[in-house]
Amino acid sequence: MAAHETKASAPAAQAPAASGAAAPAEGQVNTHVVQVGAGGLTFSPSNVIAQPGDLVQFQFNPKNHSVVQSTFDNPCIPIQNILANKTDAFFSGFMPTAVNSTAKPLTYTIRVMDTKPVWFYCSQAKHCQSGMVGAINAATSGNKTVAAFAGLAAVAVENLSPGQAPGQAAASGAPGAAASSGAAPAGEGAATGTGGLVASTSSPSNPAQQTTNAAPGRLSDVGRQSFLGLGLGGLAAFIVL
Hints:
Layout: E1 4-8, E2 29-36, E3 43-44, E4 47-48, E5 55-60, E6 64-65, E7 68-70, H1 79-82, E8 95-96, E9 107-112, E10 118-121, E11 133-136, H2 146-154, E12 208-213, H3 222-240
């Protein structure tokens, strides 16, 4: 599926432009918008075709979703659980959004560094197994398509957030913790949040790069804050449920 694109001088731009439009003018950035949870457990579009340097902005819809990078062969599991040396993976944290909220949507934006496929999913409850998966620059035919990725996700045993080890997912299927103190807890909460900017570092070898994060979930924070997140996640999940 073709990506929805915007052309902006900053990641927060919203106005859509037709797919395949001419290259952005000097000083502008091509931004592909992905709607998260709009009308169901989906990423729309589910496959973004982007060039190196482009931005992919995830806009979050009700109720509470996340974006986590994974591998193709192991959907529903954070990529760093599979590749121990993967230190640049992205995780949005949970983004609680009220059903009737009139506020601007919470967003999370990454920068595409090359044309290699990048796979992602929502780590809320059983959303990944229910088909809430997507990709950047996935093939449209062959063995590694988004449809094939969704097929693998459908039979995944667990749905984990970064910072969770196998077996730590709650019995209901909802993740038991957020990766940082700024991330919203598990559960289909309807609370609202406020956006913020997170400084990022760049490396030519990184396939994707975090640039903005409404609920900071930088993986460098995971080890330091996972125990705090577990406690806060359990308490807040009890409150919203």
